Request: fold
Amino acid sequence: MRFQGYAFSCICDRCILQFGVTINNSMETLKEKLVETETRTTVKISGAEAVIHCLLEEGVDLIYGYPGGAIMPVYDELYKFRDKLHHVLTRHEQGAAHAAQGYARATGKVGVAIATSGPGATNLVTGIADAQIDSTPMVCITGQVARHLLGTDAFQETDIIGISTPVTKWSYQVTRAADIPKALAKAFYIARSGRPGPVLIDITKNAQFEEFDFSYKKCTAIRSYKPKPEINPAKIEEAAALINSAKKPFVIFGQGIILGKAEEELRAFIEKSGIPSAATVLGLSALPTEHPLHVGMVGMHGNYAPNILTNECDVLIALGMRFDDRVTGDLNTYAKQAKVVHFEIDPAEVDKNVKTHVAVLGDIKDTLAGLLPLIRENKHEDWHKEFKDRHAIEFEKVIKNDLFPEKEKLTMGEVMEKINKRTGGDAIVVSDVGQHQMIACRYARFNKTKSNITSGGLGTMGFALPAAIGAKMGAPEREVVAVIGDGGYQMTIQELGTIFQTRVPVKIVVLNNDFLGMVRQWQQLFFDKRYASTELINPDFVTIAKGYHIPARRVTRREELDEAINELIASEEAHFLEVCVEKEDNVFPMIPTGASVADCRLE
Amino acid sequence: MNRTYTVSIYSENNIGLLNRISAIFLKRHINIESLTVSESEIENVSRFVIVAAMDEDQVRKIVGQLEKQIEVIKAYYHTDEETIYQETALFKIKSSLLFDERQIQNIIKQSNANIVTVARDFFVIEKTGRRHETDALYEELVPFGIMQFVRSGRIAVSKSEMNISALLREFQNA
Reply:
């Protein structure tokens, strides 16, 4: 029998890869086969069946996809293995990619999306790019025309490897069945290790049909790839010295905390050091919103205090974040007074945007654990007061009016506040992109980690509805509320079909202002109110939801809101709520593009 | 301040890597002046030599992005002073000139160029050296008429050590 522990090389058959030995779960199925064919000493299976075994070996039990010509052999095997590997048919491949992302973001596991060649593959690309910039572990499998047709402009042939190269962590085209296990083992290892990201494996149709001797070993190392830089203890000591000597230290934490499973270490560090800590958009929920040291969110529509005080702190401690331009504003005026300490797993992020004084490379769970004993206890009470004072200003000028409006029309903020009240902050909030997203990030309460799922880096409208499907399937025990604008909702609205078919109980809230609100806000502020192509004449969203047999309701008045949200959250099945909000509300505070964090505007 | 940097990359020999590498330069609008890929001193390890003009901050970031690629083992950057580098040029010239224009023979001798082949209709001169040397030969030959001219990309070795073998040994022992 050949599928027991022999070392094999990398897919290229040239470089040496080390694969650890694992015991195959799916081997049982194979052994059954072996019994059936006693005269044979090896088990031959098709490349398509091998794909399924590889997925099972990697612990995958749920994938998202859409069938088509070049991936049909794999779908045929999915039918055979449907009791072990659940396939969710989305209504568009982009939906499959975003659902896989939502699943990955809610669980920390690798999301898997599958599609056919040509348009199937290109439709995945937006989700792949989104996963790349937001470091989401994802494996995409695409069918491809048969090897002999490659390069002939065959039906549904597209160079998906070429197209996806700049937006994948790794990609590979398999043209022989025998290469499938090695390619997929490598794909899962690369997707989930180090700084996670999307991997695409393109499998030609002939490779899916071919039979070969199957064996599987998980990939545990690749010689040209170092997922985690080695930790230099001297750097941790340097960082500790700077932090201990600081009078006004300030922490900004990013998604690295969540990806690195370092929530406890973050908490222990800031509680001991007493340092005010703010989240980036993707860092939200790594620390409970209500934690006394949590001073809000930084960035373009972040909170006033952390933005303004970024330029007054003396030591800026960046934890698992990458100084995105939406966080920093103008780099020439960003935290110039501060010494910067950067904890980071990806060496390419160090000094990329902001020059650091001390870079602590390594897995943040380990580096923070190493830092903790070196940190002196502190309270920084005067410094905290500065945050509180500025928060009071923001509350008075912005938050009060957002959450407890006195005007007639509903605000997005009060809807979020009602959702908070009803869920207690235990829900996963999946938001789309635009004004409602910033409102959701600003006001949603998060008690638990992995609760804020949104398209941060790429800003992909249409992300939320399919991502919510994936999140709910990944974390069925949690409440999942998708908060979406009327624009983005219509970009992937067809996924209501997936919700209806799978009965996945996601709660959908569309905050409808009949505008592409964020663009309209910019047009108002920077383009002299010339509302070019931002007003939407919308359909009857309630009727559409009902067309998919999803209970639906529309709210236009404040008196109805409480009850509508109660009904939404109480429902045990999927539920749709449209809230018609003020058409021309703006999101503040705001740091205009190119302005300094110090110029954070409150109105 | 922009200057010429030689970027050296040791990598696995995989299809598609060239695309990834060139995309990193493309994305930052850095024009690749020359690119050479060959085997390296280590079996099954490829070596890229890429020449481009940029400032040190840019080249440092580019090397960071290059090293991030799964199949890149290690990347370095060097200034001209830190490397030994050469280019090769080939000149195809009418054979008759070799006999009619005695000056050509002197030019070949003085420039330390070699005659690679002589056929009935043409002969080929090879000159290896730095850019200004092949350029000078080109200028001297132009008046006689050059049928074809081609110059290779730069190949370069660093004066300092590149410890790839040790790096790979370390991995295998880990």
